[in-house]
Design a protein that fits this description.
Strands 2, 4, 5, 6, 9, 10 and 11 form a seven-stranded mixed beta sheet that branches. This protein has a four-stranded antiparallel beta sheet with strand order 1-3-8-7, with no helix packed on it. The protein is mostly beta strands.
Amino acid sequence: QVQLVESGGGLVQPGGSLRLSCVTSGFSLKNYATGWFRQAPGKGREGIASITGDGRTFYLPSLKGQVTISMDDAQNTLYLDAANLTPEDPAVYYCVADANAGPMVDPQFYEYSGQGTQVTVSA
């Protein structure tokens, strides 16, 4: 059974940074594509980044340079490092996984999703 559990969200000051974690189970990160998306109140889902089983990374162009996706296969954990957070970044952040999504950043291509972790940016 595939499970994804996010953590690491919280309150961050503008210009600050954070690391989100997603502990996975039921599959190997080396065999799946995984990624992150976010959803702000009243807005649609926005894909942020993805990583393939062999470690290739892909980003939403507008966020490239601000975020970094990585994985630790031994720990079954996916990460998202985000820097220079602004009032445009508050949302619930979700990790996703799929055996066949490949390099896709769009969350519609992913079968499994976690419950999300809230990120708030405020002074």
